[in-house]
Amino acid sequence: LQHRLGIPMDCIVYDAPNGNAGFEQGLNLGASLLQNSSKRFALVIVGDTISKQLNKKDLNELNFQDGASAILLENNKIGGNLFCGVLTLSDYWKDIMVPSGGFKNTPGFFDELPGKRLDQLKEHFHINVDNFDNKLSSSFSKVNKQINKLLLEDQKTNFVIIVNFLVSSLENSFKAILTNNESTRIKIILQSEIGLNAMATSSPSVLAQLYEKNDFTDLKIITLSLGEGLSMNMAVFDLDNETLIKTI
């Protein structure tokens, strides 16, 4: 890709396949490169062509769409903090996957997977929703504690929390936990409420919609995603109208 786009040899280029976790992971990678190099800018491109991986049945039932976005990071020495955190939940790696994808062609593997949907085949996207609520509850609590800590450290700023967990029931469960802190300074947006399921591109798309509504006034953004692996990711950053270019 670097060759095809004519990108110079002294430009650092990484391809980091992270699925639904790509937005926060991309921000973390871009910011790390800026912090540890002489480069001034990092262009983080998040894209998913999930239609190449799933069949039409999955795309229709799960409302997945292709999408792409680009975020330009500038090495600003005087402000604009970014915080990223990752919880790796590898015990649950079987609960989000395409069983026949990649090198996963072990005979009998698909038959042993619990929580399959009706008429689901091995080439279909597999999400074991039934297992998630119990397995992820402790992780939800850890993330909620981190958010409460942020609220205590900054008692003047309002927060927008964008939750992208692929499954509406998981997002609603997490929203119930977040709502328990009863803070009026939190606005919670679920990807499933927006109706756009473009994997990692969903969070930047929600940001764009907020911008178009002029909802960015003294806000701190928190994005949360649940991705393959299994990992739960969190990014916290500042954003204002002057830093955003109108999106297509």
Describe it.
Helix content is 29%, strand content 23%. With 248 residues, it is of the alpha/beta class. The strands form 3 sheets. It has a 5-stranded mixed beta sheet with strand order 3-9-8-6-7, sandwiched between helices. A two-stranded antiparallel ribbon has the order 1-2. Helix 4 (168-179) links the parallel strand 6 (158-164) and strand 7. Helix 3 runs parallel beside helix 4. The longest helix has 25 residues, at 129-153.
Short description:
The protein is 29% helix and 23% strand. The protein has helices spanning 22-35, 56-62, 129-153, 168-179, 191-194, 202-212, and strands at 41-48, 67-74, 82-88, 96-97, 126-127, 158-164, 186-190, 219-227, 231-239. The strands form 3 sheets. A 5-stranded mixed sheet has the order 3-9-8-6-7, sandwiched between helices. A two-stranded antiparallel sheet has the order 1-2.
